[in-house]
């Protein structure tokens, strides 16, 4: 559970670092890159421990899959609430296929 919480928190920082500036397109690129790097710094302080702690319970493949799904969930919330974008049907289908991938990664064969 700690791994999931840390990954969610790290993805909040990383999604913000990557996409916050899309509402500020008039700002100079060097400024938004610098600010994004500063935000991403905190993401690493959360992601590295999340993966280290998680490695005792999950494989690297499982950790990466978990991170990608969490990243998508965080991004959808960010895009809807901060960027004011709508979720379209084809996005939902694509994300559902990713969830299917999670089944195959985590299934004990």
Structure report:
- With 109 residues, this protein is mostly helical.
- The protein contains four helices and no strands.
- It has helices spanning 2-19, 29-54, 60-81, 89-106.
- It is flat.
- The model has no long low-confidence stretch (mean pLDDT 95).
Brief rundown of the structure:
Helix content is 77%, strand content 0%.
Task: Give the key terms.
flat, 0% strand, mainly alpha, 109 residues, single chain
Order of helices and strands: HHHH
Spatial separation of the terminal alpha carbons = 24 Å
Average pLDDT, all residues: 95
Round the Cα radius of gyration to an integer and report it. Answer: 16 Å
Number of strands: 0
Number of helices: 4
Structural class: mainly alpha
Oligomer category = single chain
Low-confidence stretches: none
Helix content: over 70%
Please tell me what the overall shape is: flat
Main sheet overview: none
Q: Which range does the strand content fall in?
A: under 5%
